[in-house]
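Researcher: Structure prediction, please.
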Amino acid sequence: MAFDGVTIAGIVSELKDKLIGNRIYKIAQPEKDELLLTVKGSCGQVRLLMSADASLPLLYLTQQNKTSPMTAPNFCMLLRKHLQNARIVSVAQPGLERIVRFELEHLNELGDLCRKYLIIELMGKHSNIIFCDDKDMIIDSIKHISGMVSSVREVLPGRIYFIPKTQDKAELLACTKDEMAAVLRAKNVPLFKAVYTGFTGISPSIAQELCYRAGVDADLPSAGVEAEALERMASVLTSLAEDIKNTNFDYNVVYENNQPVEYAAVRLSSYKEEQRRRFESVSALLEYYYAEKNTITRIRQRSVDLRKIVATALERNVKKYDLQIKQLQDTEKRETYRVYGELLNAYGYGVEAGAKSMEALNYYTDQMITIPLDPMLSAGENAKKYFDKYQKLKRTYEALTTLTKETKEEIDHLSSISISLDIALKEEDLVQIKEELIESGYIRRKGGTKREKITSKPFHYLSSDGYHIYVGKNNYQNEELTFKFATGNDWWFHTKGIPGSHVVVKSNGEELPDRVFEEAGKLAAHYSQARGQEKVEIDYTQKKNVKKPNGSKPGFVVYYTNYSLVIDSDIAGIVQIE
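Model: Predicted structure follows.
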């Protein structure tokens, strides 16, 4: 996941097609480090988003607008003064640097034709948007960098703009095949690292992909790689350079566990085909990818309070359960005390006064046992003492047996809510989880507030054989799926002994192919506490065999007739229906 030089080459290719010859109609600065240029011309109207944010620098075309501040910042006002209605003459990228240079043509106050340059540097914390005149003199920048901040280069009005050479890297597009091999051989680091540290514009993920294409172990020391392997590496690097020169890009996003984890402007063939989603343009890819990531991040932030409530309650119940189990173990001597009392009543008449123990035959086991005695008490009083201990431990055992069961059910319930929070993808998913916590007494409903409207729906998948599979996102949805939506002959899946979602396959009264059972089992494993494991045991049965005990927690069921399978939790390739 890197905004590297290869991705920027794809962006520049798209911007050349869409923007050259068109005019800047509107300039806005929605955020402190962000510009939004509205461009009109033969392409119609598009918006160019430029962000020099240190954590997320971006550049792509979009149709989405953003709200601007009531008073435009100084940098925005300066650009409006010079570039309003300016024509975009060219868009260029120096080599594979993470820099895009816009050449702009406009009329000054006297009506003379002038040229200016708007340069965006997409370099992490060093990202910037810089406005220069035709002699590369900096007019202004969205971030001012003084000599006290950077010893390499000042970015201030009146300074000459130049690209700092902070790393000794080869220019991939200008290297011959032999020169590429020499660059790799000169390094003594893992091969994939030699690729991204040896050439400008290549990220670690692209370096790993190139090693995969060449069939070479990415972790081998580059200095010790065999000549044949080095030749293959040079060949894939040459091929990459040719693809970039010919603007032959393949924009794709890679998914793991149903979430986007990587993107690139070249085909990431090291991942399975079903894990990749292709896009027609790099702008569409970037807008989609970061919108998805932002959604996940926002949901994580919105659910922080709920997670804290669940984690605190779970920790408290686990401690309580451990204490109850320890106390339950302490009651294991109760039957021994009962036997002591009975034997004392049966044989205690022969015990001498002041005796400290008594030997007797245990008629339950036909073995002799030694019964400790209090010498200050008679045999009958010792027997009563043991019976009292027995009764006390018996009452404790009976109470703790009920309490430990209730506490274990509460732990399972809270664990299932925790999983629901993990799989929540939308804000409406959190509403139902919050409602469950209110109903369970973990959150107080504010006075006068009504129950929020529930719009969240279960996950919906389509099996390879065309059968519809549904997955509950939380305990309320699990109950709805199992007891209201599913019919008697539909199939029901759940992880064995592990909190997780209910999975229902609509059988339509037909006999299901084996592949449907495997895919439904994978979904049950994926949406459970066992997510990420390679071997997960799944119980499955027809819905008519699943029952809900009276008074049980939401989502809790029992079943006594079932089949089992062991499967992995990878759901790549199973089609999800929105």
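Model: The two ends are 25 Å apart (CA to CA).
Researcher: Thanks, that helps.
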